[in-house]
Amino acid sequence: IGRLVIGQNGILSTPAVSCIIRKIKAAGGIILTASHSPGGPGGEFGVKFEVANGGPAPDIVSDKIYQISKTLEEYAICPDLRVDLSRIGRQEFDLENKFKPFRVEIVDSVDIYLNLLRTIFDFNAIRNLLTGPNQIKIRIDAMNGVMGPYVRRILCDELGAPANSAINCIPLEDFGGQPPDPNLTYATALLEAMRGGEYGFGAAFDADGDRYMILGQNGFFVNASDSLAIIAANLSCIPYFCQMGVRGFGRSMPTSTALDKVAKVMKVPVYETPTGWRYFSNLMDSGRCSLCGEESFGTG
Description:
Elements: E1 3-7, H1 14-24, E2 28-33, E3 46-51, H2 59-69, E4 89-93, E5 102-107, H3 111-120, H4 123-131, E6 138-141, H5 148-158, E7 166-167, H6 188-195, E8 201-205, E9 212-216, E10 221-222, H7 224-233, H8 239-244, E11 249-252, H9 258-266, E12 270-273, H10 277-285, E13 291-293
Parallel strand pairs: 1-5, 6-7, 6-8, 11-12, 11-13
Antiparallel strand pairs: 2-3, 4-5, 8-9, 9-10
């Protein structure tokens, strides 16, 4: 590897990593993530490897990596390498002349992803919803994971939601001592705020930003299956789908058949997959799936 691209301060959401991989035509990406587990120095973390399409490595790639790992005879480390993760820009290092030079590029964590979102969603309509005469108040909980910079930059700065709409937006190694899982058990601060009736829409994000929970007014819980079906039923509101059309839907096996009912009316196929994002990636790469989701609030 001769070049690394890293988010500022080491922070990138999983969808942003996928976006950057595709944007710069990288060979792949490595994500160090707590995902479903509590992180921190004494906690757990996982390693996700994404391939050039921005999706998780398929089984054939993972198996090949494992086979190669059994034949390695040596490896080298560079304990003295110091990279300033806070400074945006290119830094170059001479690592015993193995690479000339070894290049590390620090990029803004939000920029590239935000530019992609602008091409997908109707930002003017959303901004009017949050700031216009019939505005709704929203409450967004980043749960001290990586989503803090995205929530503040996109929802508050770009789309006009008041700064106090966003809570727990500082990424912390231990997520403030609470598992960063967006559900009714752990997103209690959001739930209590929504129950008061002041806010019309609420959402919480997980540690690495690829899962969410939605709450309606008075704390009404929108489960993952219904959330996916609601999005599918309203694709005509999203410019991306108006331009690209709808080829099909995908859902994981534990997800309810609410999506199937929408698909039947829209006359598009539904593909039921095992749990795991790689199966959705296969459907998307083959041109069969335009919208997909799983039981744990991951939607793409």
